[in-house]
Design goal:
It is a single chain. The chain has 280 residues and is α+β, with helices and mostly antiparallel strands. The chain has helices spanning 14-24, 37-42, 78-83, 85-90, 92-99, 104-109, 112-118, 125-131, 149-152, 222-228, 235-244, 259-279, and strands at 7-9, 28-31, 50-53, 63-65, 69-73, 135-139, 144-148, 153-155, 158-159, 166-173, 179-185, 192-201, 206-212, 219-220. A five-stranded antiparallel beta sheet has the order 4-5-10-6-7. Strand 12 and strand 13 form a beta hairpin. The longest helix is centred in the C-terminal third of the chain and has 21 residues, at 259-279. The radius of gyration is 19 Å and the shape is globular. Bound molecules: flavin-adenine dinucleotide. The site of flavin-adenine dinucleotide (FAD) has 31 residues, from strand 2, helix 6, helix 7 and strand 10.
């Protein structure tokens, strides 16, 4: 199908982009890689009057690192994350997750910021940013605010980003190697039917587990984390934690998998992710 007519603008700066958002309000949409927005426009699920292409704003696709934090511009592609040496050495979970997304074409075009802002319940990145306790930096004309990954995902395809705001960058604390991402892939697209990201701190005996695909909103599996935190990590304890990953969650069911099956998959893949993270 053909989208409804729209005006296309291409700001050169963040300030200009925010200015367009303010000027056009609800009638405007940010264009990142276009991988979700363009299909939605073609199906007329989205009918923006103004499309604001942020692809030429300098610095929005940069990856920077200091000793403890990796800062990733919202326009950074999945491929850039997959192939970055800085990312693989300081935050290997991001490299692992990036490599599981779609195919080469999708990874070359799709962006971290676009994926997070779109908040598709089957997207892979939300599990990772939750397990990594990433901070998301959101700007409007006047100021910037920081939202934790946990507070960012509000509902299905709804985030903390307001109409006149833009997601600018994502800050991720450095981790060790004991991380893993396990997913059940939807064969046609690569999206996650269920995905579980695990970050283990073996010295402190703490675990963080992010889950996508299982529910309308991605979430931290806190009941499972509580089983692991501060205890001796035996295979039996890992299994108990994995069993608790879906607890308290209203599972999604669709043509790809029933809610009941997703619950089963979440536990199985949580156990696999825990085992693989520890083995590193
Ligand atoms: P766009 O489509 O340009 O934008 C998406 C939405 O976010 C729009 O509403 C836009 O206005 C808003 N937006 C974008 N950037 C910002 C910003 N900085 N601030 C505020 N709002 C913003 N994803 C997976 O996780 N796993 C997969 O396996 C996978 N497979 C895919 C296979 C195919 C064939 C396709 C087409 C997509 C797949 N994706 C997958 C999703 C894809 O990789 C993109 O991450 C996702 O579609 C978002 O696209 P985008 O970055 O191009 O953003």
């Amino acid at each position: 199908m053909i989208p409804t007519p729209f005006q296309y603008v291409r700001p050169n700066t963040l300030e200009e982009a925010i200015g367009f958002l303010e000027e056009h309000g609800q009638d405007a949409k940010i264009l990142a890689g276009g991988h979700s927005l363009i299909p939605a426009m073609k199906l007329r699920l989205a009918q923006p009057l103004t499309v604001i292409d942020i692809g030429r704003i300098e610095g929005l696709n940069a990856i920077r690192a200091d000793q403890n934090v990796v800062t990733i511009g919202a326009m950074t592609t999945h491929y850039a994350l997959e192939s970055s040496n800085v990312v693989s050495s300081k935050c290997p979970l991001l490299s692992e997750v990036a490599a599981t997304i779609g195919d080469v074409q999708v990874r070359n075009r799709g962006t971290l910021g676009g994926s997070l802002a779109h908040a598709d319940p089957a997207a892979d990145w939300p599990a990772a940013v939750l397990a990594l306790e990433a901070e998301l930096h959101i700007a409007n004309r006047i100021n910037r605010r920081t939202v934790s990954a946990e507070d960012f995902f509000v509902d299905m395809m709804e985030t903390a980003i307001q109409q006149t705001e833009l997601l600018v960058e994502i800050r991720v604390p450095k981790t060790g190697a004991t991380v893993a991402y396990e997913k059940v892939t939807q064969k046609a697209s690569g999206f996650a039917i269920v995905g579980v990201a695990v970050v283990l701190n073996t010295a402190a005996r703490t675990a963080r587990i992010g889950v996508t695909g299982l529910a309308a909103t991605p979430f931290r599996a806190k009941a499972a984390e509580a089983v692991l935190n501060g205890n001796d990590w035996t295979p039996a304890l890992f299994q108990e934690a994995a069993n608790r990953v879906p607890s308290g969650v209203e599972p999604l069911g669709d043509i790809h998998a029933s809610g009941e099956f997703r619950v089963h998959l979440a536990s199985i893949h949580a156990r696999r992710a825990l085992d693989r993270a520890l083995s590193r």
